[in-house]
UniProtKB/TrEMBL annotation, chain A:
The keyword Amino-acid biosynthesis applies. It catalyses: (2R,3S)-3-isopropylmalate = (2S)-2-isopropylmalate. The gene is leuD. Heterodimer of LeuC and LeuD. Belongs to the LeuD family. LeuD type 2 subfamily. Pfam families: Aconitase_C. Its EC number is 4.2.1.33. PANTHER family: 3-ISOPROPYLMALATE DEHYDRATASE SMALL SUBUNIT 1 (PTHR43345:SF2), 3-ISOPROPYLMALATE DEHYDRATASE SMALL SUBUNIT 2-RELATED-RELATED (PTHR43345). One of its GO terms (molecular function) is 3-isopropylmalate dehydratase activity. This is 3-isopropylmalate dehydratase small subunit. Coiled coil: none annotated.
From TrEMBL, chain B:
This is 3-isopropylmalate dehydratase large subunit. CDD domains: IPMI. GO terms for biological process: L-leucine biosynthetic process. Its EC number is 4.2.1.33. Keywords: 4Fe-4S, Amino-acid biosynthesis, Branched-chain amino acid biosynthesis, Iron, Iron-sulfur, Leucine biosynthesis, Lyase, Metal-binding. Catalyzes the isomerization between 2-isopropylmalate and 3-isopropylmalate, via the formation of 2-isopropylmaleate. The gene is leuC. Binds 1 [4Fe-4S] cluster per subunit. Heterodimer of LeuC and LeuD. It comes from the Bacteria. The keyword Disulfide bond does not apply. It comes from Thermosyntropha lipolytica DSM 11003. It is an enzyme of class 4 (lyase).
Amino acid sequence: MELRGKAHKFGDDVNTDYIISGRYKFKTLDMKELARHVMEDLDPDFYSKITPGDFIVAGRNFGCGSSREQAPLAIIHAGISAVVAKSFARIFYRNCINTGLPVIECDTDQIDPGDELAIDLEKGVLHNLTKGIDLKITPLPKVMLKILSDGGLVEHFKKYGTFNFD
Amino acid sequence: MGKTIAEKILSMKSGQDARANDIVIADLDFVMGQDGTSPLAIRAFREMMAKKVFDPRKIAMVIDHSAPSPLQGVSELHHQMREFAREQGIYLYDIGDGVCHQLLPEQGHVVPGNLVIGADSHTCTYGAINVFSTGVGSTDLAAGLISGKLWFKVPETFKFVLNGKLPHGVFSKDLILYLIGDVTADGATYMAAEYTGEAIRDLSVEARFTISNMAIEMGAKCGLMEADDKVIEWVKQHTDKPFEPVSPDPDAVYAKVKEYDVSNLEPQVAKPHTVDNVCPVREVAGTPIQQGVIGTCTNGRMEDLRIAAKILKGKKIHKDTRLVVAPASRQVMLQAIREGILEIFIEAGAAVVTPGCGPCVGTHNGIPSDGENVISTANRNFKGRMGNNKAFIYLASPATVAASVLTGKITDPREFL
């Protein structure tokens, strides 16, 4: 599976309050509505800048803070196809895999805002098409690949009724 | 080769010889969700085609983040939780009962040596009583509700050795803020933190919860401490459940060890807009404050209220300042009434609100206006956290918050103690 789109760049320590504020997330399960407010406290116009398939690209510790799963869900419903960062906070990382949002760890200093990217999850390579360079991706643990390839944890449980990594 | 607390608990609960970086599937002793995360988990539970939870006596849902409901949309989500709890026979803590992380230890649901997940990032709080407890998202919560299990990557451990005695007027909140400032917001990411040493042993169990509560703010998966006599006595006061404390082996392997001498520590604050943006109070002393908040899962317990009341007793808060007090639970609130502490707060000019999370998470009960400075005993000061992205949040101990609302500016509490 190849993902393709342009990069929207953010800094270090982007927390889940910034991804989707508590002002919105406590009052609805309508993810389309939450998606309109994604990253609003960092960039009020972010939602309108997204072309479906685009990537969020960030620095260290992306997704730190609250455990809210509305964060990856709002990102997915805003049309973002993957998040690329130098490192991720662990609850957010698990939530992404569970909800089926690919998370990619690599050296994002080599990516500028607006760069056109293509990501090959199977081969573990990120092509920066604008710069003509390939970046190495940290591989996902086996159990996470299994959950992601089943289509998320809901699908995994529908299939097996419990955790099954054999 | 010896094991850390995290490796020992995950070994016991998985039946495997669990070592750092192994992946294990382990049995859960308790599972918790709150009103910001449970509704999505209930939806996932249904989508997973589940009919019954694994054990209703090992599950609680807590309505605390927007409680009582300030909006119709929230009311609908609370309704779903009440219906689910009734249908499944699980524990439900409703409005006014308190903050989830106060309730689980206080109501005796979690005991030393347990493995616990909660769909709330501050679930790491129970590490103070030797529980491997960690925050998860809603779909992991649903999987836990159904199977009573979860997969874990066994974390490496970052050991903090805290030597010396905390000076007068310096509290566990100051200590954990200092540590977060030192190692930064991702200093312990993917790791378990173990806090040990004389300074920890000297603290009450209540004060220790403040430290474990904020382990997540350095990125840690849990914030573990050993169960000493104080912990064992505290737990026995809250439950008859049997338990077996877990200590690290003397030859346990740590990814990192840092030693500190706390005997010269000063009161600390975290400045806007990150928790690791920490400095001594004196560096920002004099900054005008429009609102103070005392409460939350970090600092809403009796000991916190007592120290704030000691400073506020017989005085009035500054005329340009407001104070919101939210006791951590119904029990805490009742005890504060019995001790005359709420009277002190109310006479000083505070607004005392329902036990819950509202003022910390920006759902209601004290959203600041544009440009205002807030000083809070909470654990997060992210931009927008309290419901307004144009406000500025400083984090401090209950003593510093109480002193600051008296003077209307950030103030070193030692002047009042």
